[in-house]
Amino acid sequence: MDLAVQAGRPLLLRQPFEATEFDDVILGCVNIRPDEVNPGRVAALRLGCGPEVPGWTVQRNCASGMQSIDVGYRYIADGGADLILAGGAEALSHAPLLFSDEATAWFGGFMSAKGAVAKLKEAGGFRPSHLKPTISLLRGLTDPVVKLNMGQTAEILAHRFGVSREAADTYAVESHKRLALAHENGWLEEMAPAIAPNGTVYDHDDGVRPQNSVAQLAKLKPAFERPFGKVTPGNSSQITDGASWVILASEAALKKHGLEPMARIADSEWAALDPSVMGLGPVVASTPMLARNGLSLGDVGGWELNEAFAAQVLACLAAWENSDFCERVLGLDKAFGALDPDRLNVDGGAISLGHPVGTSGNRIVIHLVHVLRRLGAKMGVATECIGGGMGGAMLIEAL
User: Fold this and answer.
1) Where residue 136 falls among pLDDT bands split at 50, 70, 90?
2) Are the beta carbons of 136 and 100 closer than 8 angstroms?
3) Domains in the chain, start-ordered, CATH in brackets?
4) Is the pTM of this model over 0.85?
């Protein structure tokens, strides 16, 4: 929860109200540590919200941080709350190591054995392989139903929509260049520096590599489907840590505390599809939401489509232009249209910035707000694919 607290403190210190004024604190988190089983409540207390402000945790895989916003938005819309702190936090570098079921059974038998003879008998069943752990992150990124990891689902999309390795690498290089430019120009104004326990200040993410070229990325081997796969470490989202918070307020709370709103949540949508093609989640979630609001792809001034994999993002763009897909899957009578790449992830995304899964959905919403204000655009969409075969989308109106 250290990152959640570091992200939350500067935000709350800027507000004209006390942290105890919140009606609820909602935090998205996926890999929850056993010593912080409800990180939403832990964060609320450590941020000084007081013992009387409830805090809880939501988990919708990659969209957990967006789910926290959606829940808070609906609470306020229903009149049940006026001021909510909604966030997302994830420390993938702290994902635990897991012992195998065989090792767990042996440890249990050994610890429950009574007497020296029984202990020695159980000790004879020990095998060196019992000490070889599994990285829990690998299990978490593998779908338990279709038995495919997330990279393999991206490979399926690359095959179905004809996404080439060169196209994926080209997209990845552009993501890094856009993020570097955003850092250089101070366009990530919502991002707070991280301070290590030894006092070291990290004022930007260290995963950005603007010096990369398509030729360099072409040398990397496929990560999941060798030798012909399109998904590599160079065109996939980075495994990182991060935290993000958004303050949601009703009209009454705005007036009470003299707050100036940055944006309005106009709508949201959750959708589902086969887990083997989970990367198309943004398409099946965003399309009905836009149609419901009478909007086309061209009416949206800014898009934050989480970059799980370059091939997955490009497959989403191809799906919207594919009339057969739009007719069969989306129920349209023609292709939905083409998304302008100059409006998509204008400051890079998870390929260059990283994808701390519980955080990303929250981060792309708040960054979209800043992008819309900078570009002078009115409407924007934050959307992402979700492990398990789902998609989430949020329609934002800049104020």
Assistant:
1) confident
2) no
3) 98-135 (no CATH), 150-193+262-398 (3.40.47.10)
4) yes
